[in-house]
Amino acid sequence: VTATSCLRCLRGLLPGMLLECQVDHVGSNGLCVSALGGLVRGSVEMDHGGGIYASEDAWRKTMKTVAGGLRSVTARIILSDPITRTVRLSMLPHLLKMVSPRHVPPLGALYKNVKIMRVDPNRGILLGLPLSTLLGSETANPAPVSN
Known about the structure:
By secondary structure, the chain is of the alpha+beta class.
């Protein structure tokens, strides 16, 4: 595989495409995955992992179990930059199905018991909203907030 053929392959990867990815390992803020026989490497960040966590530690533990058991996941490309060879993927159910999200908090809504999941300097914070206010459940739903 030459650099030119790899670049051509990456240019063919467009946002919205589905990829069957092999889980390489669980990183500090998401999954590191590869696809197309290792030709493409990408990541699924924690807030795009499908909303299956209530805390960062619980997410890592769950994903280690899932990744250890499945070894592969289906994810949709949300960003592909052939120059920097960056591929970002999402496993959020509404993006996998290409439909609008079912539950979107109304603008200006106030919530109690919000958890700060992660702080990204110069980008913002990732909040966990209590699903009890949306669905009657007590788990947290990731809601990225930019600064």
